[in-house]
């Protein structure tokens, strides 16, 4: 299993070294524990793990999994310019009792680095309209709203 960052860095209190790596099937139970909706968590995690084009990065310490970033890779045709690769951060969740310690930022930085290594031209974030904290989290990292999308419920 490849490791995204080679040097573990300590998180703010309790100063545990964490590293970010790709998740696999053996992480299923712990991934379910990270999600807010226990009833649907298992099905959701299995779908992520099995879907081509979906990548899960996890932040890990000796306490176990601390957070997950769900990345969707899309190839977007560009008229006259071939195609571009776009990575969408579809979900990013940090263990509820460890929020505010820069774990989310570490995961997001690893996701951006992972995207750059795969020559993606853009990283997008999906945040619900009512999730103001989530929005501020991405904005504080440098993400900006783009108004080039129209959406229709299918
Ligand atoms: C959003 C989330 C991933 C942030 O992770 P985190 O580890 O708590 O965030 P960090 O400590 O790395 O914060 C980095 C920056 O984001 C911003 N931020 C983080 N949480 C915030 C909050 N609740 N309100 C406002 N800004 C916030 C701050 O600017 C912070 O920088 P600072 O530490 O200098 O103040 C986490 O709160 C979470 O799992 N929320 C539930 C799931 C969710 O809403 N995910 C995002 C949409 S998919």
Keywords:
154 residues, Aminopeptidase, globular, 4 helices
Proportion of helical residues: 25-40%
CATH topology: Aminopeptidase
- Spatial strand order of the main sheet: 1-2-3-4-5-6
Radius of gyration of CA atoms, rounded to a whole number: 16 Å
CATH superfamily: Gcn5-related N-acetyltransferase (GNAT)
Parts with pLDDT < 50 across at least 5 consecutive residues: none
The small-molecule ligands in this entry are:
coenzyme A
| Assigned CATH architecture | 3-Layer(aba) Sandwich
Mean pLDDT level: 90
State the shape. globular
The counted number of beta strands is: 6
Q: What sequence of helices (H) and strands (E) makes up the elements?
A: EEHHEEEHEH
Number of helices: 4
Ends apart, CA distance between termini: 36 Å
Q: What share of the residues does DSSP label as strand, in percent? A: 25-35%
How would you characterize the largest beta sheet? Answer: 6 strands, mixed
Q: Helices and strands in order, then pairings?
A:
Elements: E1 9-10, E2 17-22, H1 28-34, H2 38-50, E3 54-61, E4 64-77, E5 83-94, H3 103-117, E6 122-125, H4 132-141
Helix pairs in contact: 1-2
The protein binds coenzyme A.
Describe the structure.
- The chain is α+β, with helices and mostly antiparallel strands.
- It has one domain (9-141): 3-Layer(aba) Sandwich (Aminopeptidase), CATH 3.40.630.
- It has helices spanning 28-34, 38-50, 103-117, 132-141; strands at residues 9-10, 17-22, 54-61, 64-77, 83-94, 122-125.
- The protein has a six-stranded mixed β-sheet, sandwiched between helices.
- The longest helix is centred in the last third of the chain and has 15 residues, at 103-117.
- It is globular, with a radius of gyration of 16 Å.
- The structure holds coenzyme A.
């Amino acid at each position: 299993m490849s490791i995204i960052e080679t040097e573990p860095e300590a998180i703010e209190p309790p100063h545990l070294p964490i590293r970010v790596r790709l998740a696999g099937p053996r992480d299923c139970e712990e991934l379910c524990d990270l999600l807010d909706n226990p009833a649907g968590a298992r099905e959701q995690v299995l779908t992520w793990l099995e879907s081509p084009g979906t990548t899960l990065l996890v932040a890990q310490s000796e306490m176990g999994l601390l957070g997950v970033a769900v990345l969707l890779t899309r190839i977007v045709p560009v008229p006259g310019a071939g195609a571009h690769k776009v990575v969408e951060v579809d979900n990013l969740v940090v263990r509820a009792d460890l929020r505010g310690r820069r774990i989310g930022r570490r995961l997001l930085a690893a996701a951006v680095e992972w995207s750059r290594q795969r020559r993606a031209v853009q990283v997008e974030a999906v945040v619900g309209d009512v999730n103001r904290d989530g929005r501020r989290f991405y904005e504080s990292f440098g993400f900006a709203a783009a108004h080039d999308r129209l959406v229709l419920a299918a």
